[in-house]
Amino acid sequence: MAPDGIEKLAADLRKQEEQDGKPWSKLIVEKEGKILRVLNATHGNAVGADFSGYFEPYVEEVWKKYSSGACCKIDTQAGPGVLEGKVTSSGKLRIGDEEFDKPNTNDILGCNSGPFTTGENQTRNAIIPRLAAAFHRTALLHCEQHPSDPNTFFSQDPTNHYARLVHVNNVDRKGYAFAYDDVQPEGGEDQSGKVNAGDPVLFTVSAGGESAGKGGGGGNEALQGEAGDAGNGGGYDRAAPPPPPPANEGAEGYDRPPPPPPPGSGGLREKVKGFAGKFMK
Fold it and tell me: CA-CA distance, 132 to 135, in Å (whole number)?
């Protein structure tokens, strides 16, 4: 987020509460007049934000649509391929050979209870993330193929406006705003902001608020001084082999990391420099 991102998120949630009367502002946790954090609606009960019954009208609309001849399609993005789904005469949403009961608000927000409980059936386990994400993003009435395009996400009330506004207020519009926010259509752009690499050689963590990652302060200086600007990757030779890991603990010659220095002997910065020097030699 931008430096004022949390303030903008809080302001947008307050506006949303004015529009629909739901307790979005209760998700904003303050201390001494400053915003400390903003909780996902999944954890609303911890702060008295009761969303009971919120998604139920939407679920009823979905059941009505898919019991009247319409057919949804879930791309499992796995071995079972694309499976068709309709509501049966018994009131179940049948996708392929798997049947799902109506989810309630807690099921949709948490993505891990009721019909979204995973188990040993791998086909069902492949359906659940795509189906749960479609409910969470309220995309099931707009289109019948899921995962759907991002322009269908959070576009109909009721929806998880916390998740919607996290994406709005993040600089790159990405954010892991609910459990299955990494679900995306084949070839589609990831929405969650997850980072992965098959050949990692360096993992840098920057801390320090607005100065983080700028190379002008915080812990970056210690790594830059010992590792050729490794603090921001500017001088790191990716073609060079990564440093070898330490031998297994307990084996002969195991090099145990040094104990922390006593108080007054340099603190965190010196420890970081010591470890950087050790692994970058």
Answer: 5
Residue 65 is which amino acid? K
| CA–CA dist 271, 278 (Å, integer) | 11
The tokens for 179 are 């459990």
Which among 38, 3, 71 is positioned nearest to 165, based on CA atoms? 38
- The answer to whether 178 and 167 have CB atoms below 8 angstroms apart is no
User: Starting at the edge strand that comes first in sequence, how are the strands of the sheet with 93-95 ordered?
Assistant: 98-100, 93-95, 82-87, 72-75, 145-146
The overall average pLDDT reported for the chain is: 83
DSSP assignment of 68-90 equals: TT--EEEE-SSTT-EEEEEE-TT
Q: What is the pTM of this model?
A: 0.73
- CA 37 to centroid of chain Cα atoms: 16
Q: Are 243 and 280 within 8 A, CB to CB?
A: yes
Contact of 161 with 18, CB cutoff 8 Å: no
Cβ neighbourhood burial of 126 (10 Å; 0-12, 13-18, 19+): buried
H or E element that contains 36:
strand 34-38
Q: Which of these, 138, 135, 69, lies nearest to 103 by C-alpha position?
A: 135
Which pair of tokens denotes residue 180? 């299955």
| First-residue to last-residue Cα distance in the chain | 35
Confidence tier at 3 by pLDDT (50, 70, 90): confident
Q: Tell me, what DSSP letter sits at residue 209?
A: G
Q: Which among 121, 60, 107, 62 has a CA at the least distance from the CA of 86? A: 62
pLDDT in tens, 27-61: 999 999 999 999 999 999 999 999 999 999 999 99
CB count within 10 Å of CB 9 equals: 21
Residue 146: what residue type? H
8 alpha carbon, distance to own chain's centre:
19
